[in-house]
Amino acid sequence: MDLNENIKAMLERSNEATVGSCYIIKCQDLTSKICDTLKPVDLQRSLVSDNEGTYSFELASSYLYLFHTQVAFLCLSLSFTQLEALKPICNPGFAYSAAVFQWIDGSGERHPFSMEN
């Protein structure tokens, strides 16, 4: 099965399972409850740590896709220099995560936050 063909079909207007709406969610809207800052940011620098190390990543404005089937899909715009950062962020296959997250303010100071709250 060619996954690309399924993705192309989801974008065709004639398909009832296509994307009905797409909304951009600004970075400051995504991070306002986590990052205690009054200054709006287009890019939020962060760190994630687990038993294997500490990795940096950035969150930018992201997209919310609403399909005609009433299913929504949030596509987070994450970027990182080390692929290993993805494992503690996503924690594939597990409901529990031992990862520790921190956001970095404009002066470089680290602030812990929880993905669970």
Characterise the protein shown here.
This protein is an alpha+beta fold. The chain contains 3 helices and 6 strands; from the N terminus they run αβαβββαββ. Strands 1, 2, 3, 4, 5 and 6 form a 6-stranded antiparallel beta sheet that branches. The model has no long low-confidence stretch (mean pLDDT 84).
Features:
117 residues; alpha+beta; six-stranded antiparallel beta sheet; 6 strands; 15% helix
- Helix amount: 10-25%
Question: Tally of extended strands?
Answer: 6
Number of helices: 3
Write down the overall geometry.
globular
Distance between the termini: 39 Å
SS class: alpha+beta
What order do the SSEs take from the amino end to the carboxyl end, as H and E? HEHEEEHEE
In short:
The protein is α+β, with helices and mostly antiparallel strands and 117 residues long. It contains three helices and six strands; from the N terminus they run αβαβββαββ. The chain has helices at 3-10, 27-31, 86-90, and strands at 19-25, 43-50, 53-67, 72-79, 100-104, 110-113.
Summarize the SSE layout with pairings:
Elements: H1 3-10, E1 19-25, H2 27-31, E2 43-50, E3 53-67, E4 72-79, H3 86-90, E5 100-104, E6 110-113
Antiparallel strand pairs: 1-3, 2-3, 2-5, 3-4, 5-6
